Automatic annotation (TrEMBL), chain A:
Belongs to the CcmD/CycX/HelD family. Required for the export of heme to the periplasm for the biogenesis of c-type cytochromes. GO terms for cellular component: plasma membrane. One of its GO terms (biological process) is cytochrome complex assembly. The chain crosses the membrane at residues 17-40. This is Heme exporter protein D. It is a single-pass membrane protein. Residues 54-79 are annotated as: Disordered. It comes from Candidatus Accumulibacter appositus. Keywords: Cell inner membrane, Cell membrane, Cytochrome c-type biogenesis, Membrane, Transmembrane, Transmembrane helix, Transport. It is found in: Cell inner membrane.
Automatic annotation (TrEMBL), chain B:
The keyword Cell inner membrane applies. This is Heme exporter protein C. GO terms for cellular component: plasma membrane. One of its GO terms (biological process) is cytochrome complex assembly. The gene is ccmC. Required for the export of heme to the periplasm for the biogenesis of c-type cytochromes. Residues 28-187 form the Cytochrome c assembly protein domain. The lineage of its organism: Bacteria, Pseudomonadati, Pseudomonadota, Betaproteobacteria, Candidatus Accumulibacter. GO terms for molecular function: heme binding; heme transmembrane transporter activity. Keywords: Cell inner membrane, Cell membrane, Cytochrome c-type biogenesis, Membrane, Transmembrane, Transmembrane helix, Transport. The chain crosses the membrane at residues 27-47, 67-87, 94-112, 132-152, 164-183, 203-227.
Length: 79, 249
């Protein structure tokens, strides 16, 4: 261990502001980037799922011939 | 031989690459944390004081890895962009796009930590000399690449336009690297004042190399994460993405 006390470690030989200013900014940005990515990915997946579900519902609605035929036995092939 | 060729093409398809990348990401994060903790422990707790710069030199453990990564990521980005341009492989363009923001981040961090190092050592935050100016141009190249791609709606055309910008910008990398040799500059030379007693030189070097390795692993993990998001977005109309979204419920 190079340091005699925690205070000495923080002071960095009177260069504390510059050293810790570098460390803090680098740490914050390198933590923020993956967090933003995870958040962006979740938002994207949610959006794509919504779109997919909307498309599937639309396709399902198109498949039934009319509003009255809901109870009629289905003979249209389900792909 | 044939098998190998087929394998490469197999992994060049987003459908195969997506799950593979997903499996690799945690490993790269673990390695990044491991190397990062080791490098910072050596750099900030064990490495001795620098004879000339006192304790302020410890910024080196952040500044040099960030600067190396900013240059190296640009080369990798330009490589993928060039491959994409030449062979029209979807994955290449996506990789280039995935690397740009992280390259920009490291270019910014290089300038930031450099300014904070310059103030106590040179008495100024910034000078318009060759090394600093060319690194600033690197940051602008990254931002230009990202902005250009964002401005073009069709991803394939965005890839092509971005690739040309990235390839032209490669000329800046040797300029940054050799600037301290070619011009008179305030910035110190490439050797990291390792000409002192071997033991302390070794500790400084180890700290720096481990921090650089951590930044490497971080960059790979981040690039894989981002490329997966880009894949989902761009391939959202394909069957494999639809199946994936269905599976996730």
């Amino acid at each position: 261990m190079h340091w005699n006390s925690f205070g000495e470690f923080l002071a960095m030989g009177s260069h504390g502001l510059y050293v810790w200013g570098s460390v803090v900014v680098m740490a914050v940005l390198m933590l923020a980037e993956p967090m933003l990515l995870v958040h962006g990915r979740k938002t994207l997946v949610a959006r794509l799922k919504r779109q997919l579900r909307a498309e599937q519902q639309e396709a399902g609605a198109n498949r039934s011939p009319s509003h009255h035929s809901h109870n009629a036995p289905r003979n249209t092939p389900q792909e | 031989m044939t098998d190998r060729v087929i394998n490469w093409f197999k992994y060049a398809s987003p459908q195969t690459f997506y799950p593979l990348a997903g499996k690799l990401i945690p490993w790269f994060w673990a390695l990044a944390a491991l190397f990062g903790i080791a490098g910072l422990a050596i750099g900030f707790l064990i490495a001795p004081t620098d004879a000339q710069q006192g304790e302020g030199y410890r910024i080196i453990f952040l500044h040099v890895p960030a600067s190396w990564m900013s240059m190296f990521i640009y080369l990798v980005m330009a490589f993928w962009a060039g491959i994409g341009l030449a062979f029209n492989i979807r994955l290449s363009g996506m990789m280039a796009s995935a690397l740009a923001p992280t390259g920009a981040l490291f270019a910014f961090l290089s300038l930031w930590t450099g300014a904070l190092w310059g103030k106590p050592m040179w008495g100024t935050w910034w000078v318009w000399d060759a090394r600093l100016t060319s690194e600033l141009i690197l940051l602008f190249l990254y931002i230009g690449f990202i902005a250009l791609q964002a401005a073009i709606d069709d991803p394939r055309r965005a890839d092509k336009a971005g690739a040309i910008l990235a390839l032209v910008g490669v000329v800046n990398i040797p300029i940054i690297y050799f600037s301290v040799k070619w011009w008179n500059t305030l910035h110190q030379g490439a050797s990291v004042s390792l000409t002192k007693a071997p033991s302390m030189a070794a500790m400084m070097l180890w700290g720096m190399l481990l921090c650089a390795l951590a930044c490497w692993m971080y960059s790979i993990a981040i690039a894989l994460m981002r490329v997966r998001t880009i894949m989902l977005e761009r391939e959202r109309h394909t069957d494999w993405v639809r199946e994936l979204l269905d599976e996730k419920g």
